[in-house]
């Protein structure tokens, strides 16, 4: 959990990527060395999903992980054993978990060829399905969604591996009396986007995902309210600052998944005024999806979509996306001042890398949309920029994470020669053969020794604005990794392992 506990060292992961036949690199500003760098980093980043899995593990690639949470959901007679722990503790939060699934789906849909190019596509799909299986089971009826497994207060009294949990695992849910439009619409986005991923090879599963997505969006729209207002005790952990962005995001994905114009009208009609506008660019994160929706809807304008002809409302989203791109480009007259001296986008001291990586992923997507559409001019005030400028920005943020920074440290655990050794992660910090109870495990949190297990692929919180970084297990602000940040990083790295045109439509049919 972002404001709680984690970290690790010592992997036992056997899979490696294999670079397939070279793809076309026309218009690419860098060659095969970058391909290898980003491919290697992608293979490592993908492994953190295995580190975070709950349930009965299949083909477990992480030597220090084993089955856990097998009875999760039992108090409601549901199987909620799957899914992923959000960060370094042993809790499952539906809001960020659904965001993880949506972003991972988006990455697969846009960069499926890239992932296959480096033998990571099936791993990505497997991780996605591990989450969507959970989300389906968490939605037992049209207007009920289970959104949390485990009690944060009780969980944080312990420092123990998930395999050794002994405490009760209570559940939280939203319904018509306790609405949660944000978490329901985000879950709808996750299931709608995932339905596209599985549409070609598993049509029955895809149809099931889409059925749940439609029900959840209707629930979110007809029973409006924020889940952290309905359940204020949850606000300390993943507080939602509003549900309008999730409604736009969810409807956008449902349009892509179905082609149903009612979803397009939802985002471009009166809801556009209520939920689709902001005073300047916003930052893409687990809490705010508006920037992501703006870029996603821009693909309809830039790449063309038969169902959108004559819809002028899409232009507002495209203009907002361009404002964001102009804010990200360092030489733009409207460039954001929220950066470190080395050029890393920097917005928050908590989990600092989420914003630059999320921004870079959106920039890479928009760059690819521009190139595919033969639109090679982005106007920022009196200046104009090319799609390659956005790609260069995306690379700069990725390179910073991978070690091109003043500390010369890779913030991706397992990548490079120097990376954090004291990640705030319970399972990674406790030796495999240790027998600990709830509270006596805290000696491993306080230990001065590096983690005995490597949390392979974890992207830690990252540096402060002065670019300092303290590698300490107690420094959860900087050393805690999260599953949802890994999804955005996987998207970014997938965009960079090769250079190819965007697919015209996310629908396979």
Give your account of this protein's structure.
It is a single chain. The protein is mainly α. It has a single domain (32-496), classed as Glycosyltransferase (Alpha/alpha barrel), CATH 1.50.10. 45% of the residues lie in helices and 3% in strands. The protein contains 20 helices and 5 strands. The strands form 2 sheets. A 3-stranded antiparallel sheet has the order 1-2-3. Strands 4-5 form a two-stranded antiparallel sheet. A hairpin with a 2-residue loop joins strand 4 and strand 5. It is globular. The protein starts with 31 loop residues before the first helix and ends in a 13-residue tail after the last helix. 56% of the residues are buried. One of its GO terms (biological process) is cellulose catabolic process. InterPro entries: 6-hairpin_glycosidase_sf, 6hp_glycosidase-like_sf, Glyco_hydro_9, Glyco_hydro_9_His_AS. The active site is at 424.
Stretches where pLDDT is under 50 for at least 5 consecutive residues are: 2-30
* CATH A-level architecture: Alpha/alpha barrel
Number of domains: 1
* Rg, Cα atoms, Å: 21 Å
Compute the number of strand runs.
Answer: 5
How large is the share of residues in beta strands? under 5%
Question: Span from first to last CA?
Answer: 38 Å
What is the H/E string? HHEHHEHEHHHHHHHHHHEEHHHHH
Specify the helix fraction band: 40-55%
- The secondary structure category is mainly alpha
Sheet of most strands: 3 strands, antiparallel
Major β-sheet strand ordering = 1-2-3
Say what the CATH topology is.
Answer: Glycosyltransferase
CATH class: Mainly Alpha
Catalytic activity: Endohydrolysis of (1->4)-beta-D-glucosidic linkages in cellulose, lichenin and cereal beta-D-glucans
Protein name: Endoglucanase
Keywords: Carbohydrate metabolism, Cellulose degradation, Glycosidase, Hydrolase, Polysaccharide degradation
EC number: 3.2.1.4
